[in-house]
């Protein structure tokens, strides 16, 4: 028996998130079906991040166990032949038998994209949140700076979280604009339920001039979800990278 780690990229538009759900197609269920067909074994992957409906990924991570003799580096090629075009394995490698992607010290990076122009672009409708209201990127960055470091992010967590603690560390949070596209890139040691989308929604409110950047410390201290901005739509969010420390 050996354990193989997959780096998985996917367009989440047509899926009900990562995690298996009754009567719904998910990334996890499609991976399981493809692996079972490939190896003729009952295989169930363990995912690192359970992304929500409509969220995309470039570098999500999953592991599975198999008795197969197929070299780990060849699994990506074989599996991609059985997967739909909106899911692709980017890398496959053998790891230690006890390696668990959710029990490692990691750095995780998400990006949230905002199309900021007069009219929407059809080609961006599935991958960026659109707003015609001009956003002040410098104000957004000023607000973002207050979130860097270790904080209790309860104000930036949706109800229903199963996390034991709402304390998280953000290592970097940058807002940049290229043409009409604004990208929020955040790296941390972990993220709460909807945390990145709530951060994005809050920064958008700042960019619109509806929220002063200096209010961010008060929002953190309040530990009150109602004090932060709205949860930004899922389509703009992409899990970019996992780094195992």
Question: Explain this structure to me?
Answer:
By secondary structure, the protein is α+β, with helices and mostly antiparallel strands. The chain has five helices and ten strands, in the order βαββαβββαβββααβ. Strands 1, 2, 3, 4, 5, 6, 7, 8, 9 and 10 form a ten-stranded mixed sheet that branches. α3 (137-145) packs across α4 (195-207). The two termini are 25 Å apart. The mean pLDDT is 96.
Count every beta strand, where a strand is a DSSP E run of 2 or more residues: 10
Distance between the termini: 25 Å
The level of helicity is 10-25%
Can you tell me the residue ranges where pLDDT is under 50 for at least 5 consecutive residues?
Answer: none
Q: How big is the Rg?
A: 19 Å
Structural class: alpha+beta
Order of helices and strands: EHEEHEEEHEEEHHE
Average residue-wise pLDDT: 96
Count helical runs: 5
Apparent shape: globular
Q: Please describe the biggest sheet, giving its number of strands, its sense, and whether it closes into a barrel.
A: 10 strands, mixed
What amount of the residues lies in strands? 25-35%
Mind sketching the topology for me?
Elements: E1 2-10, H1 27-39, E2 46-47, E3 56-66, H2 72-80, E4 87-95, E5 106-116, E6 129-131, H3 137-145, E7 149-152, E8 167-178, E9 181-188, H4 195-207, H5 216-222, E10 237-244
Parallel strand pairs: 3-10, 5-6
Antiparallel strand pairs: 1-3, 1-4, 2-3, 5-9, 5-10, 7-8, 8-9
Task: Please describe the structure with a list of short key phrases separated by commas or semicolons.
10-stranded mixed sheet, 31% strand, 5 helices, globular, 245 residues, 21% helix, alpha+beta, single chain
């Amino acid at each position: 028996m050996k354990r193989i780690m997959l780096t998985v990229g996917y367009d989440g538009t047509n899926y009900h998130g990562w995690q298996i759900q009754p009567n719904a197609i998910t990334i996890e269920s499609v991976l399981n079906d493809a692996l079972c067909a490939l190896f003729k074994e009952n295989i169930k992957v363990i995912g690192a991040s359970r992304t929500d409906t409509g969220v995309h990924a470039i570098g999500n991570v999953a592991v599975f166990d198999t008795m197969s003799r197929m070299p780990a580096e060849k699994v990506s090629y074989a599996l991609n032949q059985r997967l739909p075009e909106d899911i692709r394995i980017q890398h496959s490698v053998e790891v230690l038998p006890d390696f668990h992607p959710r029990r490692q010290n990691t750095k995780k990076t998400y990006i949230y994209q905002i199309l900021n122009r007069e009219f929407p672009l059809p080609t961006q409708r599935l991958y960026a949140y659109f707003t015609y209201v001009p956003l002040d990127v410098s104000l957004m960055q000023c607000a973002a700076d207050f979130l860097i470091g270790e904080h209790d992010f309860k104000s930036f967590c949706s109800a229903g979280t199963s996390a034991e603690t709402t304390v998280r560390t953000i290592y970097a949070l940058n807002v940049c604009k290229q043409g009409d596209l604004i990208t929020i890139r955040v790296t941390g040691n972990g993220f709460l339920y909807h945390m990145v989308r709530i951060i994005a929604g809050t920064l958008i409110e700042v960019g619109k001039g509806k929220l002063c950047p200096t209010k961010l410390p008060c929002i953190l201290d309040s530990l009150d979800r109602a004090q932060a901005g709205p949860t930004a739509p899922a389509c703009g969010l992409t899990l970019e990278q996992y780094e195992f420390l």
